[in-house]
Amino acid sequence: MELKEAKDRFIHTWGTLSTQWGINRTMSQIHALLLLSNKALNADEIMEELQISRGNVNMNLRDLISWGLIFKQLIPGERKEYFVAEKDIWKITRQISRERRRRELTPLLDAMNDIRNGVKDNEEAKDLLKIVNDIDAVASLADSTLELISREESQWLVSTFARIHQKG
């Protein structure tokens, strides 16, 4: 496989997989391109490489910055903004875990708590409260796991996943 073909396949695969992490395909393709780039890229270069519109590039660059996955890089003498991606996959994993937790689990846990506190605990509400409590238990476990992942270093994660894999 030629290098260009391998890079294109990586960008496509990252784009497809990342949608399962709550990141849109174009956003993850831009992230993949920046991950693979050995230099900072500007919006025009990203547009050209991925064949996407300026508006789409700009919107997704802002989102990637808000996720903490890419950063602006100042290049002396250049007026354009340039962007680089965090290259450490463990840092990326921790950052995605933090963001997913903040964007998804925290609101879900808050909603379940509000529902539980807003409903009188009686026979009529029994089924609703059971479901709310079950969802809360699963979401709390996921929240604790993501919180742990977001704090830990790669060595701990590798050894923990290796132990889990051996048990399975």
Write out key terms for the chains shown.
168 residues; mainly alpha; 3-stranded antiparallel beta sheet; elongated
Please characterize this protein's 3D structure.
The protein is mostly helical and 168 residues long. It has two domains: 3-85, Orthogonal Bundle (Arc Repressor Mutant, subunit A), CATH 1.10.10; 89-167. It has seven helices and three strands. The chain has helices spanning 3-18, 25-36, 43-50, 54-67, 89-118, 126-151, 154-167; strands at 41-42, 70-73, 82-85. A three-stranded antiparallel sheet has the order 1-3-2. Strand 2 (70-73) and strand 3 (82-85) form a beta hairpin. Helix 1 (3-18) packs antiparallel against helix 2 (25-36), helix 2 packs across helix 4 and helix 3 crosses helix 4. It is elongated, with a radius of gyration of 21 Å. The mean pLDDT is 87.
Which SSEs are present, and which pair or pack?
Layout: H1 3-18, H2 25-36, E1 41-42, H3 43-50, H4 54-67, E2 70-73, E3 82-85, H5 89-118, H6 126-151, H7 154-167
Antiparallel strand pairs: 1-3, 2-3
Helix pairs in contact: 1-2, 2-4, 3-4, 5-6
User: N-to-C SSE series?
Assistant: HHEHHEEHHH
CATH class designation of the largest domain: Mainly Alpha
Question: Can you list the strand order of the major beta sheet?
Answer: 1-3-2
Rounded average pLDDT: 87
Stated plainly, the CATH topology of the largest domain is called Arc Repressor Mutant, subunit A
Give the helix proportion (percent range).
Answer: over 70%
Q: Which radius of gyration do the C-alpha atoms yield?
A: 21 Å
Low-confidence stretches: none
Q: Main sheet?
A: 3 strands, antiparallel
How many domains, as an integer? Answer: 2
CATH superfamily name of the largest domain?
Winged helix-like DNA-binding domain superfamily/Winged helix DNA-binding domain
Q: What's the N-to-C terminus distance?
A: 34 Å
* Class from secondary-structure proportions: mainly alpha
Give the overall silhouette: elongated
- Hey, roughly how much beta strand do the residues contain? 5-15%
Number of helices: 7
The total count of strands amounts to: 3
Q: Architecture of the largest domain in CATH?
A: Orthogonal Bundle
